[in-house]
Design a protein that fits this description.
This protein has 31 helices and 24 strands. The chain is α+β, with helices and mostly antiparallel strands. The chain folds into five domains: 186 residues, no CATH class; 147 residues, ph1033 like fold, CATH 3.10.590; 87 residues, Arc Repressor Mutant, subunit A, CATH 1.10.10; 126 residues, Rossmann fold (3-Layer(aba) Sandwich); 106 residues, no CATH class. The two termini are 17 Å apart.
Amino acid sequence: MNLEESVRQTKEQWSADPQLKIEREQVIDKYSEIFKLDNIDKLTPEIFKKFLRRDENKHWSKLDRVGGNLVKNMPKLKSGLKILLDESIPLPERIKRIRDKTSVDYTPNLANAIYTPILLITNPKKYPVVNLVVVEALDELGLYSKKDWTTNEEEWDSIPQMQQIVMETALKHDLDLWQIDWAWWRISRNDDTPNSKSVNADVDFWLVGSGRDAERQDMWREFLTSNIVGVGWNNTGDVSNLSRTQIKSIFKNKKIKQGADTLYDFTQIKPNDIVFVNDGKQGFFGIGKVIGPYRFDSQYTINHHVFPVEWITTEYILVKPDRIPGNPNAGVSRIVKGKEALFKYLNGVSEKSEDYTEVKGYAKILERSKQIIFFGAPGTGKTHHADLLAKYFTKDPAHSTMTFRSAAIQILSKNGKPMHYTKICEQALTQKLVQTDGKTPEETLRTRIAEDMKKNGSHSIFRKTDIATYDINQEKFEELKIIESNEVGKNPFVERVTFHPSYSYEDFIEGIKPSTENGQISYNLEDGIFKKICEKASADNKNNYVLLIDEINRGNVSKIFGELISILETSYREKPITLAYSKLPFSIPKNLYVIGTMNTADRSLVQIDTALRRRFSFIELMPKPELLTKTIKGISLKKLLEKLNDRIVASGLREKQVGHTYLLFVETVEDLQFIFSNQIIPLLQDYFFNDYKKLEKKILSKDFIDSDKMIVKEEWKKNSNVFIDVLKQTFSL
């Protein structure tokens, strides 16, 4: 989010909620008196600890975590506060005396996150707060380098400098020094709203690991069946209420090389917090709400340091590696950014309740024509729109969204022990995982399990343990994970295929394929994906079915569809033709819809087969720079994309612009540098592969490209500061 938008939202929030002004005045009136220089000797541990709580200061959360140790040495705290509040001493000197470890007045734990709020309360027109949120926001806007703050400058120099920047910014935008914190929060915390009633600021989100690859299934099973989350290092014993230093001391005495920080972080979880149990960088096994305090409990097999949880969901959630919140490489990680979005997800505003507004208009076109193609430049959201439209068209199915086989897998994997097939079926029906009009659903389920075991043999996901009793084949746990993420809960009304130059009619409709059994080669007629989904749709006229075809223009559509191209049209649906191989009659049902995507950078729309153009409706998706609201080091991503695409269009390559999704998830300068280096520049090289002069002169600059050598320069790739300077100079940002 840029500064202007953040300020606008902050002013709207303060205007709409008069309670914020009342709370500010109450806190300042009360604590400006308490923190008067003449009253510091009266300060008690109870009063100071009370001030650190957000429910009391109405503004800053988690001060008690960073400042709670201060009350253990009240004489030292009072001495430091007296120096801090002495206006006869220049501020840099005051900060140096209490923060320089060589100073006799050094006050441990009285850090800027504590002393700048105290200064603000005692003089709200002179001293702005400078904490991590502020530093990250200033760094995001390119106003002050976080790296300089952490590595190159002394605190007594950097804090007054940043306070001056905050003062000037607040004055320019007509905000007071209390209100400006709201603007910094929005920028630093990815648009989260501070103190919003929609977000419980006392609830934290955590990423909790499930061990190394080989032990994850066992650990998750213990979490699931015992309703806990936990970590190891069991020989440390109970670490309740221990500090980080104390836990590190235990690790040292026990000669445990690493893990002390992780264990300490785990103990900081509290009741009502939300934990995401991650499966490495692949996704989440489940999400739970903590319902009790930390305890050390040796009854558990794997982890003795545990928290009790109530599971919100135990369905496997597949997540792209770069979209995992928190730090998936750490055993325990607090999730800082995206808190508002996570609350919305947990409240049901998620993929299960998608906002279909942007595709409802397209749905009317699809209903009428039966086939549409989203086309456009790379990164314009073609696949996203196709997926969303497919979900919208099948979002109210008339029956279950899970097969008997998938339901059996889910129930057995969650139960953790063998089950009689009748019990599996009973749970599947009770949980409404399946629905059937048949009189013998138990036999249907048993048949599906038997078919899988017969077809796959020792590679089957199922294992028979007794008469009519089955379990999950744990040797296939990797396959189980894939099935759980891709099949269990999968929408059975949607199928996907990607066309490519070698894709054929035999793959798509039907064809004779070789197979080997007992060393003998045989040739059998096999149905393709299109024929299969047509047959499913024909047998189920209560529901809509959708076939998604990615990169439709990369295949030879006339050859792939063959004789079926003529019966795609609405008026020819359900009129049979004879198939080329089987010689059987075949028709396309009216409840089957086809959604394709096409990258205009691969092949222009003009080159598409005429028969395809006539039978599909085409919807062009253009770059939407207005969706890019972030500013990185003073660079507006919106303006950057606009200027880049203006140059590409001026070069006569309208269909080869750069889509907004390339920059949509950029959070840091490192993200932007990576995207440019590994995605955008290679894309432009492909566009201008025979004209580096044009790429250098018309699109980029000599700082990016050496057109004489026909290479991309390396310096901007290695140094983020150089990269930002080059971007600003190249695009006049």
